[in-house]
């Protein structure tokens, strides 16, 4: 009976939609509660300077461990925060936490000094965002030159009428911008030229096959050359092997980041890691 089949098919789809909706709503409520209770944390992944091999910077990455569900990756919950109108609050919390942590590194001469914080498209489009940055710096006492904001190419392209003035206002404070996941969005040379950008982060997907795939190797080589020609600092993300690090170093990369050197670490582990490495690479 065709119509009965259709009917049950529809009921099933409807049920699945409801389940997805309920799950999302549950996550949203849990996230709202966790943000208000200060239950999210920030971990730090070192960026290794090629040349002397020491660490002066780290990328701050948010972590959410729900008591019932366990770890929920940012690739999942950042979008939920954006849709639920929570990203402003969450972003300000991450920014302030990371700035505060970087201030405390600055007290140790062997420590890192600079922290890079990821900024989502919605934050970048908020006319109040420059004030959020200004407030985080003022509240923590971090020098603007010790803060980098990581933005993606698509975030920058999204709503240029607000994003460009925001970026210029923030750059005027002395804060620097990095283009994250470079090569995966709409790469636009005009933007690279017009925007106050300090560094390019080559996406992991180009790094992955660099030792096996000649095309990927050439793409990495070309992106590094482009960055250097534009006087930008070039960082490679997702470096997992010694061989990859040798290729990237030979191509002229400035900084490397990835599990080969270190996973993202909690604040105590990060300080120990940097202290140990920097005392060997002066
Ligand atoms: P991203 O900014 O490109 O961050 C790099 C991601 O790659 C991180 O994942 C990091 O843990 C991971 N990673 C680093 N090295 C390696 C490696 O060698 N191998 C592999 N397989 N992975 C590596 P994570 O922390 O899960 O973050 C994923 C994405 O979520 C980030 O990509 C960023 O877009 C977003 N995100 C993370 N934290 C924040 C945050 O505080 N605010 C915002 N707005 N977005 C964030
Ligand atoms: Mg990033
Ligand atoms: Mg990235
Ligand atoms: Mg990425």
From TrEMBL:
Residue intervals of the EAL domain: 24-278
UniProt name for this protein: Diguanylate cyclase (GGDEF)-like protein
Organism: Roseinatronobacter thiooxidans
Residue range from the parent sequence: 297 to 578 of 578
């Amino acid at each position: 009976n065709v119509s009965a089949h259709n009917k049950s098919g529809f009921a099933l789809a409807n049920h699945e939609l409801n389940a997805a909706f309920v799950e999302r709503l549950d996550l949203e409520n849990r996230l709202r509660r966790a943000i208000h209770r200060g239950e999210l944390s920030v971990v730090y992944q070192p960026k290794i300077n090629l040349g002397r091999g020491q660490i002066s910077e780290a990328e701050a990455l948010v972590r959410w461990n729900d008591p019932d569900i366990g770890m929920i990756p940012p690739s999942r919950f950042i979008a939920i925060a954006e849709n639920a109108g929570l990203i402003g609050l969450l972003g300000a919390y991450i920014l302030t936490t990371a700035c505060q942590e970087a201030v405390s590194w600055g007290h140790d001469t062997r420590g890192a000094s600079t922290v890079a914080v990821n900024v989502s498209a919605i934050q970048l489009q908020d006319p109040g965002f420059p004030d959020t940055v200004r407030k985080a710096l003022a509240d923590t006492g971090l020098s603007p030159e010790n803060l980098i904001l990581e933005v993606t190419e698509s975030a920058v392209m999204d709503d240029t009428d607000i994003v460009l003035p925001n970026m210029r206002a923030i750059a005027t404070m002395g804060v620097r911008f990095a283009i994250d996941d470079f090569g995966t969005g709409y790469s636009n040379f005009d933007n690279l030229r017009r925007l106050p950008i300090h560094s390019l982060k080559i996406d992991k997907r180009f790094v992955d096959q660099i030792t096996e795939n000649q095309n990927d190797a050439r793409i990495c080589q070309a992106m590094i050359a482009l960055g250097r020609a534009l006087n930008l600092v070039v960082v490679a993300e997702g470096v997992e092997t010694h061989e990859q690090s040798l290729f990237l170093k030979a191509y002229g990369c400035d900084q490397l980041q990835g599990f080969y050197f270190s996973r993202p670490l909690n604040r105590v582990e990060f300080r120990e890691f940097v202290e140990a490495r920097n005392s060997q690479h002066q």
